[in-house]
Amino acid sequence: MKQCPFWLIIVLIVLGSTKLHAQSDSIFDVSTVSSSEHLAPYSVIIPDSEHSYSFASVLANDSIKSTGFTPENEIPYLDFTRSSYWMLLDLKNRSSLEQSFYVELARPLTNKVNLYILNQSNQLIESFETGDDFTFNTRPYQDRRFIFPINFPPQTQYKLVVKTTSDGEILKLPIHLWRIDAFTQFSIKENFLLGLYYGLFLLVFILFTFFGIALKERIYFYFVSYVFLLGLFQFSLDGFAFQYLWPGLPWLGNHAILLFAALSLISMLYYVREYLGKFQRHKRYFKGYNVFIILTLVSLLLSLTTGMIYATIFPILNGLSFIVVIYFLFGLYFKYKEGNKPEVAVAIAFVSLSLGAVVFITANVNIIKSEFLATNALKISSAIELTFLSLAMAGRYRKTQNEKVEAQEQAFKRLEEINFLKNKQTEELEQQVKERTQEIREKNEVLQVQNEEILNSILYAKRLQNATLPSEKTMVQLFKDSAVLYRPKDIVSGDFYWMEEVDDLVFFAVADCTGHGVPGAMLSVFGNNALNRCINEYKLREPGKILDTLTELVELSLTKNNSEVSDGMDISLCVWDKGSKLSYAGAYNPLYIIRNGELLETKADKQPIGKYITRVLYTTHEFDLQEGDSIYLFSDGYADQFGGPKGKKLKYSAFKQYLLELNHLESSKISDELGRRFDIWKEGVEQIDDVCLMNVKF
């Protein structure tokens, strides 16, 4: 027998060692992981479309294993599916130290995720059974994702067997091995960014809810409904809703995605239709919205089912959402063609949403191979959409407020006309006195008619002035118990009270303008307008700074055309944060707080709003309110009224005693009783000044 050639022996040895090395390399060494590693390319995936394989058959049956494949991507994509899939993966710790890891499996929305851990002899060490079909507390690690802890003793080999099942959604099968500290750091950064994202939704929802309440326009209701439902959709898509809102309701956890996707689409359709208004041409365009609403409602009802119908709704609702966004872009084009140029912000918002939807869908169906875009494209585009839609809605609110300011300016001009007319009539009267008595008699009838016109104008001015004052409904909405005692000396008043709500802050004040009657009323309208400018245009929130700016506006307006007017106003101004914080600043008018039967007085700065020789910045006082506290803001008209047995002033000592005696009553009863006592005190004596008092109980 011939001897085998030496070179052939060498070749066989090399080939044998290479095969052994390849077998060794097919087992992933976990000790080489520095922070994290995607392990899908080291695994075998076995489809189970009939859900017929068992854990034991997958391990033992070679014919089943032969149907498997090794994925090329780090995150295998398996399309919209109702099948089960098995993953087999061998791992080994080749180091001399114990290694601890977290294993992340599947997407947060996967229905069933089972993990089996076996030793080198295929003996089961530990198993986990969880998924969206189970309550949240079944998860071994309480996280929105499927996280499983695993420890590798030194020189230990484990086999991981994973079974996943989907109910029709897109199924992706990441198997991501994390060092524990790396996973913790990643979660902190991710949760911070997600907090900013969802914080944007919350901020826009709260802000425009208040705008909608203030303006009572349907478009704000549709907008905040869309923001709220879109936020819940994203919250569910990320797995947070199942974790925090309904952890014990797996059915809702499974159906929330389609449910909120359909509801947010319906609310967007109503919002968009309200925004576009009506077209002179293309009237049929709006019928399309009715069709989309009906289709979405049908999808919504079908999403409450299970099985094949439920699985079909996923791609249908995705496609319908994309078509709706494109349809709205056509609406913007039609609006432009009719000469109504749409806001650039709205166009940017929906163009970004449509682009984001395209990228999101194509990335999720693996046309664009980017897990970052698959996870975040819709978030980025919806954040851009929300930002620009908020800018557009804020512009609409600003336009409404400007119209309100214009109305106040018209009222101010009307008061000026009334004052001019009154002065003119006074001059005519003085001239007529110098003329013959007979001429005076002849003119009396004319003057009577003119005086009636003046009176009617002043009465009209009173209605205009009252329109600028806060309504009783507004006070009831902002405070649980409040009232105002308002007694003008003449038909119109130089005293006024003011109240606005901005950025979760309630601003309220009582002001006493120089003089009373028409001149005082003119100043009161100007003061009301200037206060609104301070908080809306100049964005001031601190009482002292508001009074500083109010002074500048008064001085600037009353010193035009090189003429100086020394008129102004005294005021007490408060800002309440709807909790326990109250801040106050005052010009001559103090603040009274009655607490536990004791009257606490905070004095105001001794300088008026208006021209003053030596002016300093106004002081802001801050208080921590207690339950049962009563706040009193007032002008000096009540305490300065003459009357009583000796015809003297009431004075502040008696005024304070009144408040202490009546403070236990409701605010409305306090106001009524103070009015009754005021009438008794001044009986037979003319009222010398306007009276205004505001009481708020906390």
Protein model, in words:
With 698 residues, the protein is of the alpha+beta class. Among the domains are: 25-183, Sandwich (Immunoglobulin-like); 470-697, PPM-type phosphatase domain (Phosphatase 2c, domain 1, 4-Layer Sandwich). It contains 17 helices and 25 strands. Strands 1, 3, 5, 7, 8 and 10 form a 6-stranded mixed sheet that branches. Strands 14, 15, 16, 17, 20 and 21 form a 6-stranded antiparallel sheet that branches. The chain has a 5-stranded antiparallel sheet with strand order 13-25-22-18-19, with helices on both faces. The relative contact order is 0.06. Residues 6-25 have low confidence and may be disordered.
E-strand count: 25
Please outline the major beta sheet. 6 strands, mixed
CATH class categorisation of the domain at 470-697: Alpha Beta
Q: What is the percentage of strand-forming residues?
A: 15-25%
Count of DSSP H/I helices:
17
CATH topology of the domain at 470-697: Phosphatase 2c, domain 1
Nearest-angstrom radius of gyration? Answer: 38 Å
Just name the CATH architecture of the domain at 470-697: 4-Layer Sandwich
End-to-end Cα distance, whole Å, is 112 Å
Looking at the structure, what is the overall shape? Answer: elongated
Secondary structural class: alpha+beta
Fraction of residues in helix: 40-55%
**Which spans have pLDDT < 50 for at least 5 consecutive residues?**
6-25
Q: What's the CATH H-level homologous superfamily of the domain at 470-697?
A: PPM-type phosphatase domain
Average the pLDDT over all residues and give the rounded result.
84
Domain PPM-type phosphatase: 477-698
GO molecular function: phosphatase activity
Organism: Acidiluteibacter ferrifornacis
Keywords: Coiled coil, Hydrolase, Membrane, Signal, Transmembrane, Transmembrane helix
